[in-house]
Amino acid sequence: xxxxxxxxxxxxxxxxxxxxxxxxxxxxxxxxxxxxxxxxxxxxxxxxxxxxxxxxxxxxxxxxxxxxxxxxxxxxxxxxxxxxxxxxxxxxxxxxxxxxxxxxxxxxxxxxxxxxxxxxxxxxxxxxxxxxxxxxxxxxxxxxxxxxxxxxxxxxxxxxxxxxxxxxxxxxxxxxxxxxxxxxxxxxxxxxxxxxxxxxxxxxxxxxxxxxxxxxxxxxxxxxxxxxxxxxxxxxxxxxxxxxxxxxxxxxxxxxxxxxxxxxxxxxxxxxxxx
Length: 275
Description:
The protein has 275 residues and is an alpha/beta fold. The protein has a single domain, classed as NAD(P)-binding Rossmann-like Domain (Rossmann fold), CATH 3.40.50. It has nine helices and seven strands; from the N terminus they run βαβαβαβαβαβααααβ. The chain has a seven-stranded parallel β-sheet, with helices on both faces. It is globular and about 50 Å long.
């Protein structure tokens, strides 16, 4: 299917992580102009190099989405390079080490809210304003199954709540911005695993505590194949989710193929969540 995304300028936040890498390469394959926004510029450049191999332009910006001034700089650099922003994928997010809600340090709670709530707010306000001026744009917000499924939220309740805010904000803005030509949709990923350890940056969930908590990628692959991985065995589709699974849906939601879709939340989780 021709998605019609060639030469569309796409800003992807959190572009150095596992999901971010999958998103960047997916949009690159469709011929988009790319802006990779992530504090980890070194890893971002590695991902951008792979995108450029597909013949697209890719600008890496060391943006910290928790700071509005940094997001304003991101917008200015994007417009200076490409002239417009057609697609925003709010992918930057994540939580700290799983901890019981009442035991979680207040600073850790604030950090999760800064990244998952304020990061989205800053990008929606700064880039959404440009889209409204253009009279056209598509926003894809990456939430989490933890925000729609209680069983996915133990020990990450604050993170789940933060992503719940993203879901509610997305629906509200879809209603407000739809008449102005701007669509807003959400993806709620379930258990998504990178293909290799070097596919994620140092700030990713995996090197920080994921490997210690859940095992190596090779161990996860083997457990999934044998049917002994709890996060997979209960799913109707019993396989590990991969970054490209998120990218495929994001591409559809960013394209004209979904021109009559806004304000929706779609879980990509092998059927773990069925509303």
